[in-house]
Structures
1.
Amino acid sequence: MALSGMRGLSVFISDIRNCPNKEQERLRVDKELGNIRTRFKSEKGLTHYEKKKYVWKMLYIHMLGYDVDFGHMEAVSLISAPKYPEKQVGYIVTSSLLNENHDFLRLAINTVRNDIIGRNETFQCLALTMVGNIGGREFSESLAPDVQKLLISSSCRPLVRKKAALCLLRLYRKNPDVVNIDGWADRMAQLLDERDLGVLTSSTSLLVALVSNNHEAYWSCLPKCVKILERLARNQDIPQEYTYYGIPSPWLQVKAMRALQYFPTIEDPNIRRSLFEVLQRILMGTDVVKNVNKNNASHAVLFEALALVMHLDAEKEMMSQCVALLGKFIAVREPNIRYLGLENMSRMLMVTDVHDSIKRHQAQIITSLKDPDISIRRRALDLLYGMCDVSNAKDIVEELLQYLSAADFAMREELSLKAAILAEKFAPDLSWYVDVILQLIDKAGDFVSDDIWFRVVQFVTNNEDLQPYAAAKAREYLDKPAIHETMVKVSAYLLGEYSHLLARRPGCSPKEIFSVIHEKLPTVSTTTIPILLSTYAKILMHTQPADPELQKIVWAIFNKYESCIDVEIQQRAVEYFALSKKGAALMDILAEMPKFPERQSALLKKAEDAEVDSAEQSAIKLRAQQQMSNALVVTDQRPANGAPQTVGELSLVKIPSMSGDQHASTDQGLSQANGTLTTVDPQPASVDLLGDLLGPLAIEGPPGAAVQFELNAVSGLEGVPSSADYAAIVPVGEQTNTVQLMNLLEHVLMYNAMLFKQPIGNINERFYALCLKDSGVLYEDPNIQIGIKAEWRAHQGRLVLFLGNKNTSPLVSVQALILPPVHLKIELSLVPETIPPRAQVQCPLELMNLHPSRDVAVLEFSYKFGTNMVNVKLRLPAVLNKFLQPISVSAEEFFLQWRSLSGPPLKLQEVVRGVKPLSLTEMTSLFNSFRLTVCPGLDPNPNNLVASTTFYSESTRPMLCLIRIETDPADLTQLRMTVASGDPTLTFELKEFIKEQLVSIPTASRPPAPAPPAAQPTNPAALTDPGALLAGLL
Amino acid sequence: MIQFVLLISRQGKVRLTKWYSPYTQKERSKVIRELSGVILTRGPKLCNFVEWRGHKVVYKRYASLYFCMGIDQEDNELEVLEIIHHYVEILDRYFGSVSELRPWFIVCELDLIFNFHKYNAAYYALDELLIAGELQESSKKTVARLIAAQDSLVEAAKEQASSLSNIISQATK
């Protein structure tokens, strides 16, 4: 009886299932594990059959969720059993119990390899499956060549080959080096001609992994993917068993479209056309049907098609068709489609043109925010967040606020963070911003981090108009019966600073303000009390003439806290008490906090971190940011100090620890020398950072002031951690040396201003990147981002400049001027003089190419930031290759033309030396990216390369250009180039253009621009900007 | 890429697990625990996707069993949902043929005791369907043929063994 041997197992399973509770089950499992353990340990060798029995039990126990930490060896040893049943169990159990990092697996590599290269097909399958599922790096190194061989072997049956394909995919993921690109690309292309759809499906998965890493090598696979799609879309030659609910393998369709999304673009017009035909058919032909599976499968294909259309940046018509489809989807009853509709709409936001059409669905999206399904609500929130801009911010943020009270606990934190960010980014006016944040604190105080209320304080401090409004609002909230502690903090802070602006309003006399705040004191924690004490001191200071009664009360409070156990509270109480006895001197010391320098919001960073849920990771990020900001400051202050710098980067890094000590001693010195009790107690985490900052400064400034000053200095930096934020906002100790301090502060503000004019990213690289693509960022600094999007039609072009103000204050005196070279006619539409805060304006630009030339147009752009003028000169990517149209010609046409253009000046030849060494494939893709179509096989010599293209300008008709490159395989740094066209200037210009591209590879990075010397703070950008240098040459 | 496959009963008992990325035992238990908490509590008319710890999980309930597959953010959700259904159809066909046309999930909930090694056909079928977290074969017929071939190999070995033991027992009589 076959089952009799397994009786033990059956009994065990039945026992387990009869266990009344978890406790009993555990006991039974432990007993069994003990039993197995003794069996394995016993001296008598177990037969394969017995081993199999116990290993099955282990698998069952493992499946129940218990840890099985022994017997792995036995499972692995079964792999080498000669008989199929034992071997099979060995493979299955091993791949279930172990993961790729187990040491035991290493022992099996040889056996597994023998199975793979052996002749037994079933053994091959078992081995490939296990390696494909849990193979690690070591497997990768020792087995990849054998697996590759199986995949392309003509003698292997499909059932082995499809497993080999996916096994290779795993090995490639573990170590990409095991697939040798040069030889493999052609093989890969051949694999895509496979007739067996199982093998083809697996091979396409492999291709997706390969191209996701490096598409360059696999261009030849692109047309094949399109062909597979055509075959499936037309249902040509698809066996019945590969149609799923009437749809020809939806999975293969999805994979082929996925692979295509890793190629940056499709140059060949014919392939592009056939692909678009297929896509169009999918977009139009997918209907909602009753059968759920058919529906899912066809929509899986449809959504992938949408993604591909977006990626290809198709014609406007098709795009709006996509948005219309998605608009339909987000309103359907079927929840999956609704979910995916929202998700894909978010992805679609990347395409700039469709923004407006998506906005039309806003009402529906807001409805989805109340969907019963949290998955859908999350998508809706994400989409609303992404689609928010100045025009709809008010509506969206107010919706979010309304939803906040009803939202699940799990979503509140994200929701409030997003609302806060949107409010900040797109506030139409600042009083609205203050309203939103205060509401947010009111409704979801627990979820409002310190960053959020710090930010409100910064805004209010920096905008005088806002101060009375914010103070009045804070006063209103204090009247509410129960308010969140964060609300107490922010209200107390705002009223301490600005309540005197409300003096004449009812209920706003200093005394009334004081008592309404003081009412809250018993309810708050020790972290809030220091803020309240500062507020009292400030109220006292603003009460002129002094109100003896109020003074008495407040002094009594200070007195009471002088013996508080909390050091921070005690210190403040002592200091404020002493200070407030000084009368008029108080005015200077407790003066309003100075304005905070503009800076990037810590919130935005937090939003990025929110995605990563591991706290550790965000801590690493934060640390990296700290280091970055330190480095920035140190290098920037160096020249400004005027001291000759002999210390290099490395020694600068050492300064913190030194100055940290110094900081401590000056600290003491201060309190003794001035006879006041002011000390600073920055949190330990920020000490290093502060020390870093002060390294150079402490030498120059008066020692006492320097210590005080650090608090403000820190706030001036980008990406300061929140602990420093805290120090900046919460008045830890008030200044005694205000005047000196202000001088220093101004210094630092100036450095900051410098910082804020530094371009972000390499302007040169951005320009070169844009020479190859039609949209992207042309220039960015901390205040502005200039994006560009271009469309080219024959000799005409339309460019749109997107000027985005990144700040919370408007950019003024904005000017843009185009310096066109003679061959380009450029008309720039009106550029507004002011860009509102956080807004983006678009400036279209019409271009016409008159005749061939390599000259480049320059955009002179300037704006005012604070008192500083920023002026940059940028090259516009309206270069020669933009007026080329790729064309492929037949051999006959080519040679006919080539011969008819017999010599100079129509045909020019030159030997170019000092060429950047490129393989022919690399050169081909370089040419293709410049819209020069490489025609393979035209030139009999394999070391040569022949290309063709059409050039458009107003003076010439569309002109065919032919190029031939002869390389020398022995010396890649030289080549002979021949260019021919019907126009002598064109021939010359094109030849020079190609030469420039070959001699310097455009993507190669330049060494970073040297930091601008601070001695000329008025125009640092112009010095580093290659565009400016170029303009100087023009 | 599919990171893991889980089959969980309505009572939260695990029926099958398969991990295509290296998870330690501790991480595996955590995934199972937390994910069953999320999925088993979801109502019937909601979508088949949940977002959980940066993963996306596609799941579907068949009778008393939940099939869950953890995938990457950018994967095509519906495609995976239909891989699940494809898998269920394969199992259905297999168990239907071995246990008087009863749906296979009943097999695995009730008849597990008598049929553990048959139950493991769920593992074989999965291995014929997915490798490295990617779909290997989209033809039900092919997968069914391959599982049947494996079964017959096992049976053949058994017969051989039992005939051998018959010979031995007769010889030792």
Note: The radius of gyration of chain A is 36 Å.
2.
Amino acid sequence: MSAISPPPPFPSSTSKTPNKTRNSLSTPSKYKINCELSSSAPQKWTIDCVSSGEPIHIILKPPNSIPMASSSLDSSLKNSKRVCLFHCSEMKDLAHRIASESDAIELRSITWRTFEDGFPNLFISNAQGVRGQHAAFLASFSSPGVIFEQLSVIYALPKLFVSSFTLVLPFFPTGTSERMEDEGDVATAFTLARILSNIPISRGGPTNLVIFDIHALQERFYFGDNILPCFESGIPLLLNRLQQLPDSDNITVAFPDDGAWKRFHKQLQHFPMIVCAKVREGDQRIVRIKEGDPKGRHVVIVDDLVQSGGTLTECQKVLAKHGATRISAYVTHGIFPNKSWERFKHDNGGNPESGMTYFWITDSCPDTVRQVKNKAPFEVLSLAAAIATALQV
Amino acid sequence: MEKPKKKTVLLFYCVETEELARKVAAQSNFIQLQSINWRSFDDGFPNLFINNAHDIRGQHVAFLASFSSTSVIFEQLSVIYALPMLFAASFTVVLPFFPTGSFERMEEEGDVATAFTLARMLSNIPISRGGPTSVVIYDIHALQERFYFGDTVLPLFETGIPLLKQRLHQLPESDKIVVAFPDDGAWKRFHKLLDHFPTIICNKVREGDKRYVRIKEGDPAGCHVVIVDDLIQSGGTLIECQKVLAAHGAAKVSAYVTHGVFPKKSWERFLHKNDETEKAFTHFWITDSCPLTVKSIANKAPFEVLSLAGSIADALQI
């Protein structure tokens, strides 16, 4: 991975309007990176690129003054525990980013093959080398079909005499669309939590399970006693990104419903807020602004995940109608089934009703990350640093 | 001795076992077919609804499962985990074919036993009012797999061999039948159930780089030899056995496997083609434990499906 140092900060200007400068950096490889620097707040930040023969993803590494890191990322080796990090195929990129965050994290490999009958044929390389080490597995359950093979590894790793086992599952699927309303409704979120609660314990006790922005807050109670769920959030990444924006003092955060407000308002307290709600009008359900005023503001809609994007789009329209000058969105999990991300166009300025200035997602859903690469308005905020920190718990 | 009273059983099933479930229900008035809505959300995850869930309360409940591929496991498991919690009087999962583990070998540290994963998932079925769930499996591949299950489930290991015996007795030459086992593993599994037939045991021996099937014991000359095994994948082993038996004078060769796994349509190589004078296998019996195969081959010669329906209906009364 190549690290590119930022150009020297510009002399600070007393003018209220930030000087925007466009710089083109050409890297030794054939890729070009464009970055915008604000002279009003010279900050040191690096652009990290993942290059493995693929087009560059701009992933912002948060500056050191982040509130979320309980232990500094620069902690010396002897204070951090060495972790052997395994991962599923679809999380390869994120696993590499995590490993590059810290010398204490070492990537390990698994051979993922299938037998003729379609069932998995798996091999954990250098299994003996994991004895007495802290082990972790970075999983991604993007569809039901990939659960069984990853689960087989998850059930096998703790029994290899590891000193502790952590399962990082950035996005906990199921439960986003289902409602337990009638007896007969089957809660697949319960199935998944039960399967994970049954991970064998290791020398280090119950498995540590790291999940980002779990959809239903009650789901935390679905887990049994033999697992230690650790609920993290992607919001600190958003906070960092917002602070870097030239109009960071003109930002208002909007929640598409009360659920989102409940989940996130405490982490976003120092921003003015808008709360939307769906109200019934005859047969239809319409999004309205319940509280707050978007007039003249750059409004950032915040939610934990996005599926078809219908709700976000409706919020966007209402906010634009009420005078928002710019609209952006943040979701931790960009699920976007059936390429539904395509409906989100870029607004270069002046058209908040039909486009977004930014659409931030994290890399919890790797398939989407691959699809939206270099497609404005999308920007990927990587969970790598947050996960590297969580692995030190 | 008074026979225990028959119990009414509500039988649920997955999409691929519908046909077998209907056959099971047809066996007895005490077995009632129920239904589940199997849909999915846009993100691909299951959207499931158990119809008439209230009717389950106080009743014996069963689920006929089939894990033909990894992609159908999660949705069926969700139903399996939900049913016992609806105040059922007892819960039974019938999984005719227990997949995984047919190829894998635990030889080195690092080999991952997916059979263990599956057994663990089944062992974690919630208990119901009737205690631990019963899990009915036919001709499990590795005999040790019975020990993979925890204390919270009651595995019941059944076999399809009685269906074969019944069928063999219907053959005109039932006195000239010899049973052949393709390897020692098959002999261990089945010889006690078939001990009134003369037997042949084959095995694979190494000759340089290659492995050849040889007859270890027994003589096929002039007989109708029936090769018996628990399952078939590509069919390579079976074909080699047939060739060796024919070469040693077998008059006819047939085959029986409980589970016709046949990945990638490997059953095609066994079909009787119309213009062939020589038909390698006279009969090829499989059960309906692998519903996708049964759908594909129906009863194309030499295949004949022996249904587990009667046996399952009996097992549900346990």
Note: Chain B is about 25% helix and 30% strand.
3.
Amino acid sequence: MNSTGTLKSSSSELDLDRPNIEDYLPSGAAIQQEPCGKLRLHDLLDISPTLSEAAGAIVDDSFTRCFKSNPPEPWNWNIYLFPLWCFGVFLRYLIIFPTRALVLTIGWIIFLSAFIPVHLLLKGHDKLRRNIERSLVEMMCGFFVASWTGVVKYHGPRPSRRPKQVFVANHTSMIDFIILEQMTAFAVIMQKHPGWVGLLQSTILESVGCIWFNRSEAKDREIVARKLRDHVQGTDNNPLLIFPEGTCVNNHYTVMFKKGAFELGCTVCPIAIKYNKIFVDAFWNSRKQSFTTHLLQLMTSWAVVCDVWYLEPQNLKPGETPIEFAERVRDIISTRAGLKMVPWDGYLKYSRPSPKHRERKQQNFAESVLRRLEEK
Amino acid sequence: MGSASSMLTQYDIEEVQEHCNHLFSQQEIVCLYQRFCQLDRNAKGFISSDEFLSIPEFVMNPLSQRLLKMVDGLNFKDFVAFLSAFSTKASAHQKIELIFKVYDSDRNGKVSFKDILEVLKDLSGSYMSDEQREEVLGQVLKEAGYSKDCYLTLDDFTKVLGHSGVKMDVEVPVD
């Protein structure tokens, strides 16, 4: 366990135990062959490699690519496609959308009218109450999926309820959780959200055993790690679902997995989710739209099509660190879902990279200059 | 999703191409525009410092602050003109001119000993002391025939950097 200094901020703590990014970055980092020979004015003045790297990052960088939504491709550009498209819009907004809203409302009514009594009246019979609440939550998620006409293909053996196992999946939108919850009532670890989503989180999801975290709190990591450990040990708890990327990514790439889920000492069962963007882009670009807007966009599209693969459970190999374990599982999920791996921490969406990387470049430069000064 | 809807017309593309002296092809300009719109989150017409600093690869670069001063708040035409020095079609002179501008932060047309020291400081950080930097720079300047009080002009830069060529190319990914 790294313990270099106790006063570092939490963001640099997050970075201290990352694998070396330089190992992943492609040829850009390898342009500079080891300079040698006597140091000249030319060598000090020539900042072109550094400038090229900076300009290269401005023109295109692998981090921003992970959060690019698909712009909707217009296909209604001529005389017969346009009326067809108009008809489609009419159908989607004025017929399908109200029907879906109605289905969802009916679902909520059924759910609440069963959930609230069960929750209040069966206080004494915990086991029975939990089973019923579990089935009710699964049913409600089914209603949600129906409200976007979700076409979900599940592959692989369904998750079983055993102690000492966690499930990890790649993350594209909050609907990932709903799609998986429809099949099995998972307990999930989520960022606490404001608004109506937060209300749902604190009432209904509480019953399936959810754990909240707050990205902005520095000390939060240890508290959450402890809660995770406690949950996994319990035999009667719902299986725990974790999204180790920590943020929504656009379903073409995966960002680095946080090691929290991989150092709990239990079996990790990977789940890969891949959305077919044919009708709608299910990526929730939280920078550009609120969750409500995102849901409305889904409800006014034709369908949400996706594949879910439940993959073979993995254990920590002897001699493997949790970070290597996390990267190995990320590789398994990315290969199955056809996603490219990038070496960035998803939290860089919210904070700046630690100065460690810049300092390493500075160190390389300084050492090279001082060494060449000695040469004759 | 403002990015895809604000399309460039052929006139716009030609105007931008004119402004950057035809150093980018029309397709590259279209791709640069998509990138510009992606970085400019609320379609203000320019990219703010914050938005540049949301690119982790850029933040990690030791010269990011200097470049930021040059590129902050530029509209698309000037943004392309700035990047044109990195085009493969740009001449060595244009590249050297950009390097000179990076050093000449007070824009007075000459680069002093102190200016070079400042850039060296960005590049070496806390891994070299100020005295070491002064000593190294003083020594290589003397060997090249300049004194510490000399001011370097663009011609001097061309002389020093010119003959071994400057490789400073960035490819615009065209999908």
Note: Residues 1-17, 26-31 of chain A have pLDDT under 50 and may be disordered.
